[in-house]
Amino acid sequence: MKRVSEAKYEMCEMNQDQxxxxxxxxxxxxxxxxxxxxxxxxxxxxxxxxxxxxVSGDGERSEQSAGEGSAASGAAxxxxxxxxxxxxxxxxxxxxxxxxxxxGRINELVDSDLxxxxxSELYTENYDDLLEIGRAEQNExxxxxxxxxxxNWDEYETVYLGFPTWWSHLPQAVASFLHLHDLxxxxxxxxxxxxxxxxxxxxxxxxSICPDVRLSDGxxxxxxxxxxxxxxxxxWLGESGLW
Length: 243
Description:
Layout lengths: L69 E3 L5 H5 L4 E6 L5 H12 L3 E4 L10 H14 L15 E9 L7 H9 L6 E8 L7 H8 L4 E2 L2 E5 L7 H11 L3
Parallel strand pairs: 2-3, 2-4, 4-5, 5-6, 5-7
Antiparallel strand pairs: 1-7
Helix pairs in contact: 2-6
């Protein structure tokens, strides 16, 4: 079992049937499983040099305040985002299924492909154990091996990147994804779930790993309120000018 630097994952456990919420969209074709085992911070040749410090999970324990559906500004002005063309990808990591619900909504409304970011060895379904695994992975700076990478990555110009906040940071599986997929020159719209801390340090993590990314405004929704907040996702997509 690889250790994941996560804190509070989303509150609901996802079973395999939840993948059906993708509806009429298909998952992006999977490439061969990444074979290098654990990728340690400076050894990966993905987007950039260093891995963001720690990682936490869906519905993290942080008590920082962030209202559900809160938007966060990135580095790219709206005009630049509106100019994005080419294919769009929804890439999501979700342990409990909360963040996956948002991904499914985006994939339903936007002409896009959907890719699940998953470790080659799935995480435990025990929430308490997962908290400890996440913290340990964060402390040790472990990048878990992924089950697959995105085929035809260069064809995508816009990436909707979804993840929970774990211990105020990106889940390490997402960090692995960023190291393996160069975001330089791509427009990235982040979407996120958390217990109460919103994006916290996750956007800084993305920019640290991928300094040349065009990071646009994102949306963060309280993990246990996702089902009742999908209209905020619709509004966010409309404001982005890409839907």
